[in-house]
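Archive entry: two folds, one per protein. Generate the first.
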Amino acid sequence: MSASIRLLAIAFAAGLVVTGANAAEPGPLETRIDAFAKTWAHINFEIQDKSVQAQEAERLAHECDMLAQQYPGRAEPLVWEAITESTEAGAKGGLAGLGLAKSARAHLERAEKINPTALGDGSVYTSLGSLYAQVPGFPIGFGDAGKARAYFQKALAANPDGIDANFFYGDFLIRQHDYAGAIRVLEKALAAPPRPGREVADRGRRAEAVALLKRANHQLK
């Protein structure tokens, strides 16, 4: 089970673009969200010790929760709370990881009701798709390939060239043994334009995409 949940650190929609950061004078919420994005990238891609990663992710999730309480009408803090919970789930694995994955889904569903386009680039849909794709199915968990595919299709409709939407859809297609399809979308992930200020996340996600692409090509030989 820990292997199934590990990639949630993915999260996931890590590599997300903060739409509010495009403003000339970002407000307090946008500034905090941008900081969350950078801190998350460090935790997810640069901390190798799983116990330390879990501790740091838990701390960041608490900060996201506090911001969500401060801005109850905004979806962005909820999305980042879900992302960091997923990272913590990947670091812990097992039943603890599954519980965190369920909490992440609940936060994403709340965010979707508030604003499904929060953070831009279909990130809410990408994150939900990743959860349904990677969590074990019934009776252990809530994983569901049909729901995963539907959410990924929504994410790609919103952002067809995004690195995260294509990466996680590629991971899903590998799980479905559609290796040719996975190769196509993983190549799109690697061709995604760089995101200013998200260098750590881009570098980490590209490395993961290269590894998955190698795996998919190997399966076709």
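Generate the second and append.
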Amino acid sequence: MLIPLRSSERVYALAKVTTTLIALNMAIFLYQVSMPPEQLNDFVMQWGIVPDHLQLASLVTSMFLHGGWMHILGNMLFLWVFGRNVEDLIGGTRFLALYMVTGVLAGIVQVIFNPYSRVPTIGASGAIAGVMGAYLVKLPRSRIYTLLFFLFVTTVEIPAPFLLLFWFLMQFLNGIGSLTSTDYSGGGVAWFAHVGGFIAGMVLARFFPDRRKWRSWYEEG
């Protein structure tokens, strides 16, 4: 198991949007866990993506719901590790646009590949996959300090392209494997949301120019 801890790239400005997104996701999750089970189930069915009877608003609202502590903590860790650098490079407003657009596109891809599913798809992972795709394009020479679990526990520096492309390959292969299932009522991971979000992030990153030429302003402050 590989768990990213931090990027080798320096961050020059406060990651206000990344921090706000994390805080918002955590606040909504705490609201979720305060609900009794039946109310929570209705809440998730209403605001999550249910492909079999899709509500367009759920393509946005689903990004702020999570299924458990491991789900949200894992997502927020990935958002913190990769989001801070991308936000620092392109600016907060562009970063928020990238996050929201890739999240919506990730949801659409998931619906395309699972059009008859009656299980709600929730979580920020599609949008975060978009951030990871943008990170790969923007910072291909960076390295990720990573916690490695393999017979022993240690930390290693892994080139970002290797880590991110390995992650993407795993999502893609698992997504292909999930197509053999005909159970439209069972749960699982939204593999194709990850795949779609990652590719969307790689493509859209090219339309958001870096603001490195203004970085001297940060260094002087």
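Annotation attached to the second fold: The radius of gyration is 18 Å. The chain has nine helices and three strands.
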